[in-house]
């Protein structure tokens, strides 16, 4: 099964605004539509920028800004200060919008889109081709392709299952512990000292992904206190 691409996941009907829309109208639009950002698009459909709630809230926060001291002004970034001033006092979308917008092409696969959202810590990303806005892909759109892996019902030899699990463990440094793996009738058992709840949970998930696994049993035990030399004498 081919991985879905941005063009099939995106919402094509996107609310946009022109660069000359007044800030007050933008704030009203965001509130009425229940959205946190709106793209700024030129008359020819090309993407110019994005106005977010943060851009508008900046106007309120700027009311408490104080002029830096003479010494502080020597180390201040004039470009950054000017940018903040423009966003805090601008009248139109073009004056307050964010121009460094994260975009993706229409042929980007779902996994790469998810990685982009995670890397930039954003909730949605604009789909753009030749500078023209095509749509938007949100986290909710990606939820449609999140599937729970199905366990293979067919019988698989226990030794093949064991080897597959051990091979996967060796590929991950956090799983390369002194645990032993036993498999009986499709039931996987982990034995040895407990590596901790996070690793135990991850090992369970790892084992469940191997075809033929019917159940996973954690038989590990806590590390005895006296193993470090401070137990009972």
UniProtKB/TrEMBL annotation:
Domain BON: 157-225
Keyword set includes Zinc-finger: no
Gene3D superfamilies in the record: CBS-domain
Domain CBS: 10-66, 97-152
Alphabetical list of SMART domains matching this protein: CBS
Name of one Pfam family that matches: CBS
Keywords attached to this entry: CBS domain
Transmembrane segments: none
PROSITE patterns given in the database record: BON, CBS
Entry keyword annotation includes Nucleus: no
Protein's name according to its UniProt entry: CBS domain-containing protein
Organism: Siccirubricoccus soli
